[in-house]
Amino acid sequence: MSNIKRDIMSLELDALTQEMILLNEKKFRGIQVFEWLHQKDCFTWKGMNNLPKALLVKLEEHAYITEMQMVTKQTSGHDGTTKFLFKLYDGQMIETVLMRYDYGNSVCISTQAGCRMGCTFCASGLNGLERNLTTGEMLRQVYAVEREIGKRITHVVLMGTGEPLDNYDAVLGFIKIITHDKGKNLSQRHITLSTCGMVDGIRRLASEKLQINLAISLHASDDELRKQTMPIAKKYSIDEILTACEAYFISTGRRITFEYALIAGHNDHPSQARALADLLRFRKFKCHVNLIPINNVVEKAFAKSNQKEVARFRDILLDKKVETTIRRSLGTDIDAACGQLRFNAMKK
Asked: Where would I find the Radical SAM core domain in this sequence (predicted)?
């Protein structure tokens, strides 16, 4: 190891075993450390009680375990959704959301502190991007929630603050570690990655041949409308995004989800529903539309569509044979909008 301390929680197993060799230790020690961190949720060197004291001294000298402090949490009185605010080593704040379903406990994690995508209806990027999160900081969000509730997290959504494909390598490390059989052994099919449409990242992800679910934040049926709310649309057209989605489907066989945040008077007209259906229904991949009534954000000038308009939009898509659901609104009595809890905390 070098003189610079390593973020040991961010190391995949092969890299960790190589670090053991550099410390003149047996490779199996790497497996032991990996299991302590990612299977047994041990975040102190002293807690790793099957490791020799001499090795523990070396580890403390050459590596550190990702730190994270829970600042506050908000729990919905309506549905039990819990939003956590965590403080990182450098004072940055991130938020994580626990959602309870009949099929298990799902956690929505952040991949960046802030966001540089600048989507005009989203609270995540109100202060821009501060920095990328490490793989370890993503993992600790899951582990911290598990420890808090005393139950296993069965599903993970990379849909919190930040654009996952803008932090590609760390996100890929997260996926590989949390699905490793020496760690949480979470099924790849229980992981969903949401992107605003970074085409290069989607194509790169397709080449990994993973089995994770891909969700695209589309929010418009044509490029001009999309440019009004999503700056990324100036770089990548909808056609480029859909072509990349086809490549992902061919590589993985996984259905693509298209997220469509309904904004009153902006993108919820029946003509836009028909255009969206025409855009998707003849594609060479399986897809699904998830309609999202947006959460109101004080700092934004947008309002969510009413229930009647949302239902009408859904029915048009269904009539045109496009599989569609309306996302159930969770945590409406707490800081529900993505990035809102963090933003309010950073203002203080």
From this structure: 101-333
Beta bridge partners of 94: 86
Residue from 241, 253, 134 nearest 195 by CA: 241
Residues carrying an active site annotation: 95, 338
| Residue listed under structure tokens 């309870």 | 100
Q: Does 218 belong to an annotated binding site?
A: yes
* Closest by Cα among 220, 224, 212 to 271: 220
What pLDDT is stored for residue 330 in this prediction? 65
Q: Is 250 exposed, middle or buried (0-12, 13-18, 19+ CB in 10 A)?
A: exposed
Nearest by Cα to 203 from 243, 259, 233: 243
**Phi, psi at residue 266, to the nearest 5°?**
-115, -55
**Residue 162 marked in a binding site:** yes
Categorize the per-residue pLDDT at 301 as very low, low, confident or very high, splitting at 50, 70 and 90. Answer: low
Whose tokens are 């695209």? That residue is 216
The better pLDDT of the pair 272, 344 is held by 272
Scan for tokens 């929505």, then name that residue.
108
- What is the location of CATH 1.10.150.530 in the chain? 6-64
Q: Which of 147, 202, 143, 209 is nearest to 178 (CA)?
A: 143
Q: Is 251 assigned to a binding site?
A: no
Domain with CATH 3.20.20.70 in the chain: 69-347
Mean pLDDT in residue range 210-230: 96
C-alpha to C-alpha distance for 67 and 65, rounded to whole angstroms: 6
- Residue 329, annotated as binding a ligand: no
Q: Which two tokens stand for residue 307?
A: 């229930």
Tell me how many degrees the CA angle 270-326-95 measures, rounded to the nearest 5: 120
93 phi and psi, to 5 degrees? -110, 140
The whole-chain average pLDDT of the chain stands at 92
Q: Could you say which architecture CATH assigns to the domain 69-347?
A: Alpha-Beta Barrel (3.20)
